[in-house]
Amino acid sequence: MKVDLAVLGAGPAGANAALAAAGHGLSVAVIDENAAAGGQVWRAPAPSVTRDDADARDGAALREKLRISTVEHLDSATAWLIARDDAWRVDVARHGRSETVTADALVIATGAHERVMPFPGWTLPGVIGLAAATILLKANGVLPGQRTVVAGCGPLLSLVAASILKAGGTVAAVVDLASRAEWLGALPALAARPDLLARGALWRARIAAARVPVFHRHTVIRAEGTERLGAVRLGRVDAEGRLVPGAPEVAIAADALAIGHGLVPDTAATRLLRLRHRYDAASGWVAARDGTLAGSVARLWLAGEVGGIGGAAVAALQGRLAGLAAAQALGRSAAAAEAAQLQAGIARAGRAAAAMSWMMRPRPAMAGGITPETIVCRCEDVPRAAIEAAIAAGARDLNQVKQWTRCGMGPCQGRMCGEAAASLLAPHVGGRENVAPWTGRPPLRPVSADDLLGDFDYADIPIPAPAPP
Amino acid sequence: MTNADRFDCAVIGAGVMGASVALPLARAGMRVALVDRGPICREASGVNAGTLTMQMTRAALIPYALKAWELWMDTPRWLGLSVGAEQRDGLSVAFTEAEVAILEARAAARRAAGAPITLVDGARAREIEPGLSERALRVGHCPVDGFASAYLTGRAFRVALEGAGVALREGVAVTGVERVRGGWQVRVADGEPLMATRVVLAGGVWLEDMAGWFGIRLPIKVLINQLAVTERMPPVMQSVLGIASGLLSLKQYPNGTVLIGGGWQGRGGRHDGRGDAFVPEALIGNIRLAAFVLPALRRARIVRAWLGLEAETADALPVLGPLPGVEDGWIIGSVHSGYTSGPFMGALLADAILGRPLALPLFPIDRLLAQKDAA
């Protein structure tokens, strides 16, 4: 398939980039692994689920716009390799075969994934991610458990707790790394987003009405249970996420724990392309982009959270801006007025987004709660002690830690363990900003051999000339 | 400059070749510096397919590879740590009459050089490897085969090198070497130069640049090998599988992952870095070939692919010996399937430097020199 613009990701950023570019006359293909557009925040609910909230309406509107547009939506697709020759080339595994999309311009809008800093017991059945819980609730209408502890940091805490209550579930406790004062300090930044303020207030009111205990400046020390989760043990922390010595612990009976420590930009594609990245205190390592969202190579734009955690509203505006920039770069009529309007909108929404991403930031001392025997890399069963041993043996970058321990070599490709491994290495190299992320490798997601290979016989395999005798 | 700052030998390049030279020199009492612009064993030595096979090793190198194979299987004894080396049956498969002819010729040459290779039919081969394709016509079988986990190489050597007192300088880029009174000054990018009586070049694909420091033109061809690995899967094979022409290397590690290699080429060069020039058709072709040889691989999921550089001289035989016309200068590397033979070749060069008797001959580079400029 040959198009003017290929877009990676059909979330708020990617779908809007595709729509804006198509609206200015570009032929566009948007590639996404999900069956329907919307990404995580605007995820399409399962047919059996009826919802009527702002995210559901925004998502439905987006899907309708895409449906009636000229955008080619490659859904249920795994973009497994991106390369650049004269044009961009994206190899896509879809419906049991691999096809190639070539494009003159590329927008990467791959969003973010969840950060869960490990703690003893985090691999027990019953423990799930906070963002994962939002998907369970809004896309599938499923509660995480009978009695759920909601823990971590950032605005997802209230969202998940309130959603569980609304769906008729029980929240045993909300456990927040942040203090009440930190939340109050973030309020002025939300002034430009009365919609967010109102939603937050509604969530909190629902939590208060259900008399759910809220533990500020607390963290989960341990998830307890044998076959599955039975209780969650909490402890007090300081502003950096360090356990306060001697403070009393609290045990709360629960059969589910939804826990998350913010979001991590999914830079698998930008790292594979060897783009420039930078370290940001709130978002961690992000792909670098300029004011027009252009990445560090020509004809490439970065929209949404791949360049910094900012939420769905900012991502949608950035998507439109990137789509316009691509259209302009490919010679379509410039829409300077709309671009300026979008820039202003991003700046307005950006203040609230920055405040929320700051509430979700990783606390520097959180890795201190990982005991030596706690599994850090779940795919390859690598405990903290093995990572510390590799560091003691001389590993000083994340790639060497990976080679010497297999941490990050499994099917999650380092998404689940990368943040923890980097936090463990950080004190040995002068800080988290000195721990560059893992080198990007294809496939961008694990891809089944069957989907890549198609039907063939021996004679169809283009075996090169033999090696020297 | 005090005597304490002066090394008896500076080895430039901390891959398997450089590390294998530095270690015996230090154990023989020399003060050795091992310098690399990156971390130890993180280019070809850490990312190759870990194949320890005779059937893809050039016939002239079989005696070296056999000795190195013993060393790889035994690293806990001489390095102190395992590199995950395992002995396995090696099978090299022919599917067409043309490949049978290649197989017979290659097996005969390697058998003459000492590799215990026999030819069997497909039915016998499937007794050794039940998952093998029904289409196999003729198969070379060698019990001296196996694999290491290449990514553990640096860790194992690092422990041994530190134990032997080698000054390991990682992240130090050498920019040139100059003759000074009584030895060599090794210039580095950011820092004080090293002083050494002898210098060993062990820079893999970058040997061409390094030889240039001495006015020696040594053309080195760069291969860009694509590799891929599956996620863990139930046991699907026990042997190491290849095909007669050499374009496949397939093995399943005890952790369940299956490594797919064979030297299908990506694009790039020694100055491009690696990892950004995949040829998707070659990756798919390589995996197709793997799934043809071992049909169970169609069920696999590919979790990662990468590129590794491999160096080769004009005649695909090593550079291993003195730098011609350069006093106290030595060079090692650029061997097709050099990882397999590396530990023995390094020890051999160390013997030459120490003036000890040699178990096997060196490969002096005079044969390869395009011309020699006035230095």
Order of helices and strands of chain B: EHEHHHEHEHEHEEEEHEEEEHEEEH
Measured distance between first and last alpha carbons of chain B = 26 Å
Q: Unreliable stretches of chain B, pLDDT < 50, 5 or more residues? A: none
Choose one word for the global shape of chain A: globular
Total strand count of chain A, please?
22
Low-pLDDT stretches of chain A are none
* Counted beta strands of chain B: 16
Domain count of chain A: 3
**Estimated share of beta-strand residues of chain B:** 25-35%
Q: What is the mean pLDDT of chain B?
A: 94
How does CATH name the architecture of the largest domain in chain A?
A: 3-Layer(bba) Sandwich
Q: Please, how many helices of chain B?
A: 10
Give me the CATH superfamily of the largest domain in chain A.
FAD/NAD(P)-binding domain
* Structural class by sheet pairing and helices of chain B: alpha/beta
Share of helical residues of chain A? 25-40%
Indicate the radius of gyration of chain B in whole angstroms. Answer: 21 Å
Q: How helix-rich are the residues of chain B, as a percent range?
A: 25-40%
List the total number of helices of chain A.
13
Any idea of the CATH class of the largest domain in chain A? Alpha Beta
Gyration radius of chain A (Cα, Å) is 23 Å
Explain briefly what this protein structure is.
With 469 residues, chain A is an alpha/beta fold. Chain A has helices spanning 12-23, 54-67, 130-140, 156-166, 180-186, 194-209, 268-272, 311-329, 336-359, 384-392, 398-405, 418-429, 449-453, and strands at 2-8, 28-31, 72-74, 78-84, 88-94, 97-108, 112-114, 127-129, 147-152, 170-176, 214-216, 218-224, 231-236, 250-253, 256-260, 263-265, 277-280, 284-287, 300-302, 375-377, 382-383, 447-448.
Q: How would you characterize this protein structure?
A:
The complex is a heterodimer of chains A (469) and B (375). With 469 residues, chain A is of the alpha/beta class. Chain A has three domains: 2-113 and 264-334, 3-Layer(bba) Sandwich (FAD/NAD(P)-binding domain), CATH 3.50.50; 116-261, 3-Layer(bba) Sandwich (FAD/NAD(P)-binding domain), CATH 3.50.50; 370-434, BFD-like [2Fe-2S]-binding domain (Arc Repressor Mutant, subunit A). Chain A has helices at 12-23, 54-67, 130-140, 156-166, 180-186, 194-209, 268-272, 311-329, 336-359, 384-392, 398-405, 418-429, 449-453; strands at residues 2-8, 28-31, 72-74, 78-84, 88-94, 97-108, 112-114, 127-129, 147-152, 170-176, 214-216, 218-224, 231-236, 250-253, 256-260, 263-265, 277-280, 284-287, 300-302, 375-377, 382-383, 447-448. In chain A, the strands form six sheets. In chain A, strands 1, 2, 3, 4, 5, 6 and 19 form a seven-stranded mixed beta sheet that branches. In chain A, helix 10 crosses helix 11 (398-405). The mean pLDDT of chain A is 95. Chain B is elongated, with a radius of gyration of 21 Å. Chain B starts with 5 loop residues before the first strand and ends in a 22-residue tail after the last helix. In chain B, strands 1, 2, 6, 7, 8, 9, 15 and 16 form an eight-stranded mixed beta sheet that branches. Chain B folds into two domains: 3-45 and 152-219 and 315-368, 3-Layer(bba) Sandwich (FAD/NAD(P)-binding domain), CATH 3.50.50.60; 86-145 and 221-312, 2-Layer Sandwich (D-Amino Acid Oxidase, Chain A, domain 2), CATH 3.30.9. Chain B has helices at residues 16-27, 44-47, 62-73, 75-78, 97-112, 122-128, 153-163, 207-212, 280-293, 338-353; strands at residues 6-12, 32-35, 86-94, 118-121, 138-147, 167-169, 174-180, 183-188, 194-201, 221-230, 240-243, 249-252, 258-261, 301-312, 319-322, 329-333. In chain B, strand 15 (319-322) and strand 16 (329-333) form a beta hairpin. Chain B is α/β, with parallel strands linked by helices and 375 residues long. The interface between A and B is large, with 50 and 66 residues.
